[in-house]
Amino acid sequence: MTKLLASPLTSLLAVAFISVITVVRSCSPTDQTALNAFKSSLSEPNLGIFNTWSKNTDCCKGWYGISCDPDSGRVTDISLRGESEDAIFQKAGRSGYMSGSIDPAVCDLTALTSFVLADWKGISGEIPPCITSLASLRILDLAGNRITGEIPTDIGKLTKLGVLNLAENRMSGEIPSSLTSLSELKHLELTENGISGEIPADFGSLKMLSRALLGRNELTGSLPESISGMDRLADLDLSRNHIEGPIPEWVGNMKVLSLLNLDCNSLTGTIPGSLLSNSGYGVLNLSRNALEGSIPDVFGSTTYFVALDLSHNNLAGRIPDSLTSAKFVGHLDISNNKLCGPIPTGSPFDHLEATSFSDNECLCGGPLMKTC
């Protein structure tokens, strides 16, 4: 058998090829430096999240919560959640707690597509303004911390952003005008902060948005008409703000809206009939406003509500008999109004408790045990 001998050129090419693979697959030195600076500004005392982040190891190989591009060795994902089913949490039997702040060095991770630092409860300080320079960022999730300050003014520069979640922090200021230029944004959650001012008039420019969760803030003004053109919007939560004025008729004509939560605002006027006749709604909460007039008698065989809450308003008149023809009504609350007359019999009234009808002027029958 003839023994094949490698030529010097072949051997040289093989060594070069292996060297290239080694270089490409190892963590970028710039990224590793940035991650170490990012780590130095944070403290996680209970779970040992950062134990794998050793200066003497490759950040693309075994660093908890870090993912890299296999070809370039650039860091693409930081995924650190304080509430997780990951083994490290299961073993500890507890959720996480982390304090400190977000070091601007994170902005040196210029290939970053996902930045998740959520539900740690103790991370404070402001979002570094330079975060808007991360042109490849698709997910920014900093929910469940103690972050203060305002949403970065130039947030609109993150043109690839699909998810922006800053919920349950201590942020203030207004929604920056540049936010409405995020043409790829699908999920926006700013719940439970101190964000004030009006919803931008061109909020409807966010044509890809399917979830807008802005409840428990200090928002003012009325519902911008531009929202009527958001054909992908399925969930809209503006509860516990200071939204005022009437509910526009167009709200009931939105194509895919299935959750509308407007409770605890300063809404006035009557309830649009289109809002209750729309068969697409699953959850509708208009409670704790100043709505008046009667409940529109527009229910039918396609009506389907998992929850319908009209409580704590100034609604008067009778409960519509057409509600008995609804396909399904799971939870109904019309308490604390000025309704009168007999409670209709049949579904859904036969499975509701007296608390659903309490504190009205002169309702009778049904679960109230009050003779008409």
TrEMBL record:
Keyword match Repeat: yes
Entry-linked Pfam families? LRR_1 (PF00560), LRR_8 (PF13855), LRRNT_2 (PF08263)
Q: Which superkingdom does the taxonomy of this entry point to? A: Eukaryota
Its signal peptide is 1-26
Q: Where is the Leucine-rich repeat-containing N-terminal plant-type domain?
A: 29-69
**Keyword annotations:** Glycoprotein, Leucine-rich repeat, Membrane, Receptor, Repeat, Signal, Transmembrane, Transmembrane helix
Tell me what this protein is called.
Leucine-rich repeat-containing N-terminal plant-type domain-containing protein
Organism equals Brassica carinata
Instruction: Give the record's family classification.
Output: Belongs to the RLP family.
Query: Mind telling me which InterPro entries this protein's record contains?
Result: DNA_repair-toleration, Leu-rich_rpt, LRR_dom_sf, LRR_N_plant-typ
Question: Where would you find this protein in the cell?
Answer: Membrane
Q: How does it sit in the membrane?
A: Single-pass type I membrane protein
What GO cellular-component annotations does this UniProt entry give? membrane
Annotated coiled-coil segments of the chain: none
Transmembrane in keyword set: yes
